Amino acid sequence: MSTNLQGKTIAFLVAPDGIEQVELTEPWKAVEQAGGTPRLVSTEGGRVQARDHLEKADTFPVDTTVDDVSAGDFDALVLPGGVANPDFLRMRPKAVAFAKGFFDQAKPVAAICHAPWTLVEADVVRGRTLTSWPSLQTDIRNAGGTWVDQEVTRCTAGSNTLVTSRKPDDLKAFCQELVETFAA
Question: Tens digit of pLDDT for each residue in 163-183?
């Protein structure tokens, strides 16, 4: 399978605070190493605050906001986790609509850890098989999805391909699968 993302622009959707840093930086590096262009999208401009679990980590500059872009501007979407990040995003209609747009346009999406909360809110997990941090399994099932406890899951049962992983320990497999999926 190809791992060349040359000419592809990948959106990374995050809240202003609460992003699990390694779940942002490792997929970001994987996209860059495969020749893709990652872009940081948030609900507010400026800088976002990443976390190492609950402790403050680095800040990162926002490239654009959900007010100024749509799924049509990108080839794929990555949703990093962190507990607060997706919880904040699912309460912002424009962020939810932005994520849902990738499903409406049949573009691939990759989500790790708590990030599927945003997808539950977007009502796009129905009929899909995915994994996440274990505490989300009831939410996913209640939203019509099938939750599995696996390092990485690639689901093609819907309009697009959905790649999901459980936690930072799964990042190597997650990054490999998302690059292969986005390159296809």
Answer: 999 999 999 999 999 999 999
